[in-house]
Structure formats: structure tokens, C-alpha cells
Amino acid sequence: MRVQKRTIALSFYFFLLILPIYWMLNMSLRTNADILANFTLFPRNPTLANYLKIFTDPSWYSGYINSMIYVSLNTIISLTTALPAAYAFSRFRFIGDKHVFFWLLTNRMAPPAVFLLPFFQLYSTFHLIDTHIAVALAHCLFNVPLAVWILEGFMSGIPREIDETAFIDGYSFPRFFLTVFVPLIRAGIGVTAFFCFMFSWVELLLARTLTITNAKPIVATMTRTVSATGLDWGLLAAAGVLTIVPGALVIWFVRNHLAKGFALGRV
Amino acid sequence: MDKWESNRAWFLILPVFVIVAFSAIIPLMTVVNYSVQDIFGPGQRFFVGMEWFREVIHDERLHNALVRQLAFSCMVLLLEIPLGVLIALAMPKKGWGVAACLVLLALPLLIPWNVIGTIWITFTRPDIGLLGKTINDMGIAFDHTARPLDAWITVMAMEVWHWTPLVALLAYAGLRAIPDAYYQAAKIDGASSWAVFRHIQLPKMRGVLTIAVLLRFMDSFLIYAEPFVLTGGGPGDTTTFLSIYLVKIAVGQFDLGPAAAFSLIYFLIVLLFCWLFYQALQNVGTGESK
């Protein structure tokens, strides 16, 4: 009896959790006129017109391409720089190690709003405004520390005897790192890549400020549509649904590591 | 675990150091630079010392934004932590349900923050939103664009909807780490389910809950995109939190000096909490939760 009550409460919670997302999905399948005129729980005349418009209008679909480009760039930069650093933090004691580790955390927690103007100035100086690399570098502010912390958490779970044995067997450090160690923590690398991808994908403020047209991400395209007159709710909803797709596709693979990733590898 | 002593490890950190220095230290120094100067244009700048800080500290609107921010972050904790723990306790311990719950919980966490705002606009608007229309049809006036209280309720609801799953995920991870032997011992002693929660589950979750509290506090302290999209900080200033106010000054009014001074104060507050977070994490690492 108790168990049943629990399950009912939990189901009710999940119902509430899904409802807003469902409502957006519902809207994305209707035309704007239909949304404004009729209030229905299910789309009566479902149409894919909104999605078609997004996939055929360059000002919409280029947003997705731009986002994908800078998110991928950022993930690659974050992972390649964080891997050796995380190894250093998990295996060595050196001057200033704790301070650097803490300093990295402060950047993960820093308000992006604080860095907005200086970023704009800095990237203007280097003529990087409105390029993908600018956004990718800006997102390194919080993603590199994140990657270091998560990877350190995973690496500390690997016994040090493995390193010692490999070095006794005559492995050089780069060879050991790439052929023995990296394969051992590939799950951790996957999780880290996922979190870098995600945090870069969901960020709006920096991505919007550092781009104008050529590298404008989809999240910025959406807010600019909000501020314009003659809001097309159906189109907006369809664009929103499409931004959920990349995350939804990979949830299944990372479901057991979500807590660890969000807790910076500390759980 | 004993670590090797070697300062050559610095070479491994160098790439991270360089890239984060480029995206953190240089910008931060620029902020410091702005905060003590009055800039009219290229080449026309005057050293003004602490003047901007004085102006910012006495700024009535900043005080209001700070109070609002603290109230918001505290309410976030009060609502999300208990709710998250309850959800984690209700979740199944094995079987196919575990994976299903985890996937569902993760869904809101992976949505871009501005889309969260969009979802909640479409959900709560009095004319086309499912929730807004239903409430208004029941005879209760509800409009988050015009009434401050409604705006607050909507922003809170959105925030709780968005981030409670994270607390639940963390709490669930903590619960799963409790060995079965503890529950068996409690059963033999005839402990009530409340006693099990109070004396076994809660103490064992202390580590993850500390992380959850600090993460939620920090991230809600930096909130920008969701309320910006949902309410734009309005009606009036009623949902203008610190980041929104800062962006208003910096980009909207282009007041570089005050914005920079404000940024530094903001950053110092964050730094303080960050340090607390770090200390707590150190204790988690060495404490009983391992």
C-alpha cells in the first residue's frame, strides 16, 4: 500500500515535469493562427510547417550549425587541455596545486555577466567578434575548469599502481598516457565531453553578445525573435523543441553518470 | 592516497593555465581597470579612484536587486532541497524504473536556459498557455507580465521545475551508496521508516546534500537567461536579479565604470561562497561519505 502511494506521487511529479515540455511540443505542431484562435490539449490538425520553415530558412538552420560548430570546438579544446591537467592534479603534489585547483573552481562559478564587457573588448582587439572560435574560447572560462574537476574525479578512482607498473615496464609518459591511461578512463572522458557540450549548448549570454550574424547561435536567434513584433509562437516552439533533441539523444548513455558530472566529479 | 611530489607537474597544467588565464585573468584585469577610471572615449580617461565603488554601494536599485537575489536563492534552496530528497526517496531502487526515472529527471537539465524561459512563457501566458489559461478560466486572475506576485510565482515555479531534478539526482546517488547491511540492521532493530531516514539516510546523504545546497545556491545566484526571457526583469524591477541588473547597466546604459565596480563586488561575493563550497568539498572527500 505504501509503495503504491509512493509510485502515484512520483508519477504525478513526472507528469508535472513533462507537461510544460509537452505543451511546447503541442504548439510546435500547430500554425500560429491556430494557436491564437483555439485552445486545445491535442493538435487537431497537426502540421510540420514550422519545422519545415526552420529546415529551409537559412537564418534559422544556420543557428543550429553555428551552435554545433562552437560547441564542438569548445568540447575539443576543453578536453585536450584538461586531460593532462586533471592527471597532474590527481597524481602529483606540487607548489600551488590546491590554489590552482580552487582558482579553476572560481571560474566555473564566476558570473558570465561580469565577463561580458571585457570579453567583448578583448575579442574586438583580436578581431574575433562574430567568429565561432570567440564563443568557443569564451565558454572555456567555465568548461575547462569543469572538465578538469570531473576528469580528476574519475582519474582518482584509478589505482596508482597501474601507473607505477607501466613505468617499470618501460613505458614513456606520453605512450603510457595515450595507450594505457586514456582507454582506462574513456567512460570519464565521455561524460566530461557530454557536460562540456551541454553547458556550452545551454549558455545564452556570452554566445549572444559575442556574435552578430555569421556565428549567431540558435539560442540567440530565438531571443531576437521574441523581441521582434509579430511573434510566431509555433515557429518559436518548434525551434525550442529542436534545441532539446541533441541532449535527449545522449541522455540514455550518460544516465548513470549525471550526478557525478553535475557535482564536478565529487559524488 | 599519497601523491608523488613533483613540480614538473606544472608542465601538465600549463595549457589549462594559459587558456583560462586568457579567458579569466585578462578580462578581470580589464574590469579592475574600468572600475577606477572614467572613460569618455579612446585616449580620454581619468583616474577616479574609488568613486564608482562609492556610487555603486549607495545605489538603491542595486540594494534592491541584491535583497531580491538573496531572497530568491534562499527560497530556491528551501523548495528544491526537500522536494529533491522526497523524489529521491520515492524513486525505485532497482529494475527498469531506475533508468526511466533518471532519463526523465535529466530532461529539464539539458534544455538551453533561454528555451526554459520560452517553455514557461508558452505554458503560463493567460491567452495561450495551458497553465495560465486554466487558472484564469477558474476565475483567478493570473498574469506574469503585469502582476509582480504572479511574476515571482512563475519564476520560482520555473526555477523549481528546472533544477529540482538535479537535487533529486544527487540525493539518489547518495542513497544508492548506502550498503544494504544498514537497512537490514535497522529492520532487525524494528526501526520505523522515519528513524531509518533520520539516522541512516540523512547522515549518509550529508555529503551530496552539501554539494547540492552549494551548487544550487551558486547557480541561482548567477541566474540570467531564464527570467530574462520569461519576464525581462519586470514588471518594473520586480524580477531583476543581480546578473540582469548588471547586464542592464553594462550593455543597456553602457556605464562602464559603475558596471565594472558592480562586477567586482559581485565577483567577490561569489568568491566567498565559492571558498565555502571548496571547504565543504574537502570535508566531503575525507569524511564518512566516501
TrEMBL record, chain A:
Membrane topology per record: Multi-pass membrane protein
Species, as recorded: Desulfacinum infernum DSM 9756
Protein name: Carbohydrate ABC transporter membrane protein 2, CUT1 family (TC 3.A.1.1.-)
Subcellular location: Cell membrane
Annotated ranges, domain ABC transmembrane type-1: 64-254
GO biological process: transmembrane transport
A GO CC annotation given for this chain: plasma membrane
Keyword line: Cell membrane, Membrane, Transmembrane, Transmembrane helix, Transport
InterPro entries listed in its UniProt record: BP-dep_ABC_trans_perm, MetI-like, MetI-like_sf
Coiled-coil region list: none
Chief subcellular location: membrane
TM spans (from-to): 7-25, 68-89, 101-120, 132-155, 176-201, 233-254
Pfam families membership: BPD_transp_1
Family: Belongs to the binding-protein-dependent transport system permease family.
Highest taxon, organism lineage: Bacteria
From TrEMBL, chain B:
InterPro entries per record: MetI-like (IPR000515), MetI-like_sf (IPR035906), Sugar_ABC_transporter (IPR052730)
Membrane topology, from the record: Multi-pass membrane protein
Chief localisation class: membrane
Pfam families: BPD_transp_1
Ranges that cross the membrane: 12-36, 70-91, 98-123, 160-178, 207-225, 260-281
GO terms classed as biological process: transmembrane transport
Keywords attached to this entry: Membrane, Transmembrane, Transmembrane helix, Transport
Locations listed in the record: Cell membrane
Coiled coil: none
Domain ABC transmembrane type-1 residue range list: 66-277
Keyword Membrane attributed: yes
GO CC field: plasma membrane
Assigned protein family: Belongs to the binding-protein-dependent transport system permease family.
Name recorded for this polypeptide: Carbohydrate ABC transporter membrane protein 1, CUT1 family (TC 3.A.1.1.-)
Organism: Desulfacinum infernum DSM 9756
Record lineage: Bacteria, Pseudomonadati, Thermodesulfobacteriota, Syntrophobacteria, Syntrophobacterales
